Amino acid sequence: MWEVRWIHITEEHLEMAGYYFEVFETVEEPEAIYEGKMGECIAVREIDKGKYIVVVYRGLSKEDGFVITTFLTRRRRQLERRRKIWQKRR
């Protein structure tokens, strides 16, 4: 099922095509997680200076969930307007 979802995501966000493994890394080891408007989680990780990968997902349990969408952004401040539910320790 993930392969079908990945094809759909990369059709909408062509820039994500080369970031398959980074999506998983962002969910597993994010720098921060923000709360979405409908209960989803928004994981963020810097991949280049000032460039972030954002993964919107819903966790069904600690071991199971699904990715809704993913994209690249330089607008971290817009994400920071949301409620932060987790922050990586430095």
Detail the topology: elements first, then pairings.
Blueprint: H1 2-12, H2 20-28, E1 32-35, E2 41-48, E3 51-59, E4 65-73, H3 76-79, E5 84-87
Antiparallel strand pairs: 1-2, 1-5, 2-3, 3-4
Short recap of the structure:
27% of the residues lie in helices and 38% in strands. With 90 residues, the protein is an alpha+beta fold.
Largest sheet: 5 strands, antiparallel
- Indicate the percent of residues in helices: 25-40%
pLDDT < 50 runs, ≥5 residues: none
Order of helices and strands: HHEEEEHE
Q: Quick one: overall form?
A: globular
Number of strands: 5
Mean pLDDT: 92
| Termini Cα gap | 35 Å
List the total number of helices: 3
- Which assembly state applies to the chains in this document? single chain
**Which strand order do you get reading across the main beta sheet?**
4-3-2-1-5
Residues in β-strands, percent: 35-45%
Query: What's the alpha carbon Rg, rounded to whole Å?
Result: 12 Å
Number of domains: 1
Please identify the structural class as seen in this structure: alpha+beta
